[in-house]
Specification:
This is Type VII secretion-associated serine protease mycosin. Residues 1-38 form the signal peptide. GO terms for molecular function: peptidase activity. The chain crosses the membrane at residues 388-409. This protein is of the alpha/beta class. It has two domains: 53-361, Peptidase S8/S53 domain (Rossmann fold, 3-Layer(aba) Sandwich), CATH 3.40.50.200; 385-421. The protein is 32% helix and 10% strand. It has an eight-stranded mixed sheet with strand order 3-2-4-1-5-6-7-8, sandwiched between helices. A two-stranded antiparallel ribbon has the order 9-10. Helix 5 (136-145) packs parallel to helix 8 and helix 6 (177-189) runs parallel beside helix 7. The chain is elongated and about 130 Å long. Mean pLDDT is 78; it is low at 1-17, 19-49, 358-377 and 458-488.
Length: 488
């Protein structure tokens, strides 16, 4: 038996067995870092169930005011019009920790992709709700749709929007291009109208390009980060941001100046804030600080959700046009660093400024789809006509004359009682005690009373020809002697 076996195998067969064993060992060593050797269809589920070997966690928020993005982006005014309700944003990233209180009601059941030693190279499973070892995807999801906390210390741009997470278990930077393409297709199949891709690849890869083209053709608004390499070389493009139909987002700091790490190129469409942002952390609670274009892209995705929440009939192209046209320019106009400018959610939702942008572009038909009409400021009208002003002026003059004349009334009365001559009024000594002088003449005799005939009857002083026995006007017949009068 033994000799027969040697004859049948011979030296050639033994050599073939050694080569086969060597190839099998080489294959095992190459595939070992990817996944444990297991039958296809079970390896992905086994790896997905493994807990994170190292998980990023956060800390409690320090005491302070509202999240800076609320004021920087004018979100309070925007939330009066739209909050993102009814809109889902798909996030292809490291996963989302749905246990966090700020995301508890925002995350829907998504999917997970794990690389496996199979013909297609990956396996799709359902992710565990807490699976986000790197924390990158949780931070992105929080900036898009975190609920408003007490005092607005944390809030997403669209706090009532939903997030559909597509987790790359091995990390986006270590995933194959076929895996990334499958994840993008999965996001499109979920029905989410907005797709956030907060990663950048230095080169055009056919699987990713074709997947993005399918997403754009399906009417999904694809928003991608420009990348953080600080590249200013126009020949160096980052993908998927540089693909046609993708809204590429750069980053600025808190003052609105372009960040040095943010890539710049003609394919950059607009910018958002990306420096030292407070974001939601995985681990069930806590927060941390992050920087980069990934988180600027998340703000634009949230702004898109706000627009679609108010105007669900708009297409992806129309939403992108609104976001670009309403952006606040940096440095006076469009440039490679920030594109059209910093995203303005309020302007995008209201349509303010879109007519001006349409006029500049020569587009008069689609310049402001679904814009909220803004009424012209009314011209101030005069309060009174010229006739009314004249009448009031005359009336005011008469009233002033009356007021100024009131203090002179007592003097006029005294002068009349003296017969319009200077000097003090002589007391009536012969009047009965306790009685006041009789009243003046009636109004009908006023002119006669003023002619000086109210003098007392005195023979020595009465002019010649005066009627005898006539009593003076305004005085009784028993008036004091003329010697007591001070008349000249």
């Amino acid at each position: 038996m033994t000799s027969t076996h040697r004859i049948r195998g011979g030296p050639a067969a033994a050599a073939r067995r050694r080569v086969s064993a060597l190839l099998a060992l080489t294959a095992a060593l190459v595939l070992a870092p990817l996944t444990p050797l297991a039958p296809p269809g079970t390896a992905g589920r086994a790896l997905a169930a493994e807990p994170c070997r190292q998980e990023v966690t956060g800390v409690d928020l320090p005491d302070g005011g509202p999240h800076p993005l609320i004021d920087l982006l004018g979100l309070r005014q925007t939330w009066d019009l739209a909050t993102g309700e009814g809109v889902t944003v798909a996030v292809v990233d490291s996963g989302v920790d749905a246990r966090h209180p700020d995301l508890a009601d925002a995350v829907v059941t998504g999917s997970e992709y794990v690389m496996v030693p199979a013909a297609h190279g990956f396996e799709r499973t359902a992710p565990a709700p807490e699976q986000d070892c790197e924390g990158h995807g949780t931070a992105v999801a929080g900036l898009i749709a975190a609920e408003r906390t007490e005092g607005d210390r944390m809030a997403g741009v669209a706090p009532d929007a939903a997030v559909y997470p597509v987790r790359i278990a091995d990390g986006v930077d270590r995933a194959s291009f076929e895996t990334l393409a499958a994840a993008i297709d999965d996001a499109v199949d979920s029905g989410a109208p907005v797709l956030n891709l907060s990663f950048a690849i230095p080169g055009d890869r056919a699987p990713v390009r074709e997947a993005v083209e399918r997403a754009v053709d399906a009417g999904v608004l694809v928003i991608a980060a420009a990348g953080n390499e600080g590249n200013r070389d126009p020949s160096q493009s980052m993908y998927p941001a540089a693909y046609d139909g993708v809204l590429a987002v750069a980053a600025v700091d808190g003052t609105g100046a372009p960040m040095q790490s943010s890539n710049a190129a003609e394919w950059v469409d607009l910018a958002a804030y990306g420096e030292n942002l407070t974001v939601v952390a995985p681990g069930g609670s806590g927060y941390r600080a992050e920087s980069g274009t990934s988180f600027a892209a998340a703000q634009v995705s949230g702004a898109a959700a706000l627009v679609l929440s108010r105007f669900p009939e708009l297409s992806a192209e129309e939403v992108a046009r609104r976001l670009i046209a309403s952006a606040s320019p940096v440095g006076g106009g469009r440039n490679d660093l920030t594109g059209a400018g910093i995203v303005d959610p309020f302007g995008a939702v209201t349509g303010l400024g879109l007519e001006r942008a349409g006029d500049a572009a020569g587009d008069h038909e689609d310049r402001a789809p679904a814009a909220i009409p803004v009424q012209a400021v009314p011209r101030p009208e005069p309060g009174l006509s010229d006739t009314a002003v004249t009448a009031l002026t005359v009336s005011g003059g008469l009233l002033l004359a009356v007021v100024l004349g009131l203090p002179a009334v007592p003097a006029v009365r005294r002068a009349a009682r003296r017969g319009w001559h200077p000097g003090p009024l002589a007391p009536a000594t012969d009047a009965p005690a306790g009685r006041r002088p009789p009243p003046g003449p009636p109004a009908a005799a006023r002119l006669d009373w003023l002619d000086g005939t109210d003098l007392p009857p005195a023979a020595a002083t009465r002019p010649t020809g005066a009627p005898a026995g006539r009593a003076p006007r305004g005085r009784s017949a028993t008036t004091a002697p003329s010697s007591t009068r001070n008349r000249t």
